Amino acid sequence: MLAPAHVGLILLGWALAGGSPGPATLAISQTAMSHGRRAALTLAAGITCGSASWGVAAGLGLSAVMLANAWMFEGIRYAGAGYLLFLALKSLKRAARPWLATAAATGRRRLFARGMLLHLTNPKAVLAWGAIYAIALPPGAGGADVWTLFLCLISVSATVFHGYALLFSIPRVARGYARLRRWFDGAFGALFGVASFEILTARLRV
């Protein structure tokens, strides 16, 4: 069984890692500023479910399977890099267009699916889950320990992702985005491109 102090440090590290700039937080903040709180919360819910899927997969041993079969990692890696590149081009295209005040947010189902896809196509996610289990769980830990830790970690992830949605949908922030929309979209496009490159050049380390 994990000591409470040890769990606290693990969860703090997990929160800091999840809240650091990356594809998920970039997508949530962009959606919040451009389409509002509801759209951002829907996207965050999809990202959380994608993270939970990798957490369950790692708990069941899929991360070990991926390490033993590099082609699985490679396939997901290329898909993830391609999807992030698509988001980069979409943001840059939007930055080049005049602002359309009547532009509607994407449907909620599509936003949820987009968020889930964003996380499911990041192969680093399942490896991160596998690594945190290996670090946090003591030798001989049982299934109850694994799934208790999973529930703690996914709760932290949900808090971080939905917190981003709430923070960046504050009216003052949204108004700032409206004034500087092209600059923001250009920056998001560049950052999505960098994230795509980082995933594309990632390598398995065994």
UniProtKB/TrEMBL annotation:
Its main location: membrane. The keyword S-adenosyl-L-methionine does not apply. The keyword Transmembrane helix applies. The chain crosses the membrane at residues 39-68, 117-136, 148-171. It is found in: Cell membrane. It comes from Acidimangrovimonas pyrenivorans. InterPro entries: LeuE-type. This is LysE family transporter. It is a multi-pass membrane protein. Keywords: Cell membrane, Membrane, Transmembrane, Transmembrane helix. PANTHER family: ARGININE EXPORTER PROTEIN ARGO, THREONINE EFFLUX PROTEIN. It holds the Pfam family LysE. Signal peptide: none annotated.
